Each structure stands twice: as C-alpha cells, then as structure tokens.
Amino acid sequence: MGARAILIYLLRHGEVAHADPRRFIGHLDVPLSARGEAQCVAQARRLAGASIAALYTSDLGRARRSGEIIGAPHGLTPTLVPDLREMAMGRWEGLTADEIRAREPEAFADWMGRIGEFPFPEGESVPDLLARAGPAFDAIVAGAPGRAIAIVAHGGTNRALLCHALGLPLGRLLALGQDYGALSVLERAGDGWALHRLNEGPMPQ
After folding, report:
1. pLDDT, tens digit, 9 for 90 and up, residues 80-93
2. 86 is an active site residue
C-alpha cells in the first residue's frame, strides 16, 4: 500500500531587515522587515482556508516570526526544528559577494565555480545542508498529524528540500527559485512527490 497522501505548504520566510540580495546571511539571526511581515500576512490570508494541521519552522527568528504569522489563522504556533536552518556560511556571513570577492578572490571564484559542492569557508556545503535538513523533513512527514502541514524555512534549505523530495540532483538547486515570502506546494500520493506550485509570491491585495 502506498504512503498516506499529504500536502506540504513550503514557505520561505519574509524579507529581512536591510535586505540585500547579494549579502550572505546564513545563521545570522536577523529580523523581518516591515515588508517581510506584510508578505507573511498576505500568505497567511491566502492559506487561511487550508486545513493545516501542524506548522514547523527553523529556529532562526526570521523563520519563527514568519511561522507565527502563517499559523495565526489556524491557532497554530511553530514547532521549532533547528535542522531546518539556512546553510551555515562560515566566515562569509554578513558580507556581500563584492566584499568577499575583494577579500578572498580565489576562494570566491572556487565557490562560484562549484556551487553545491564547495563548502563555505568554516561553514557548510549543500550536501552538508541536505544531510541535516533532509532527515528533518522526512521525520516531519512521517509524524504528520493530518493531510496538510506547513514548513517555513530558508532559501537554500527549501531548494535542497525540493531536490530531496523530487529526486533532483543538487546541481539543479538554483533552478528552483525561492523568493522572500514565497510559497511552494508539494503533494505526496503513493510513494512519490508532485510539485504543484513553485515560488509563488504573496497574492496582491
């Protein structure tokens, strides 16, 4: 008999304060911006009619706060899962790509040439990220109390989880967009997963 059908509402946290798309944040615990809060409110409104039975988030503040907003219409508070954290970016955390290139041009060029394989200096690689986030995802699914659950995590984490669920090579990671506050939807029916939505931003009000 196939596995029980389940829906996963997979969200990236909202925009962070002083957001810079070329800044490496990683494990830094930065708060949401006002725009990020609004993105999550919009997604919460969008999902208010969904029968979400449980909510899991990374333990970093930006994901936890996003989860609190998403869960409010359902009376849910986040269950914190540290293994859903963003990739650890080591000594590059807090720096922009231009700053890293100026300080460590050879290491940065190596990293750019082997995204998905080359670890962040003193941090993690994508396989390292998946080695902790993949089992966390599998455990959440195995213990899911209902047909639909929500997971709020990070750009890198969500990309890795999508590859994991869909059986895609990690080299496809960057093809799976994950914007601030965006929603992706996975459904498991039988033994496999289907992707119904990818990287959908908050609905305009």
Report:
1. 999 999 999 999 99
2. yes
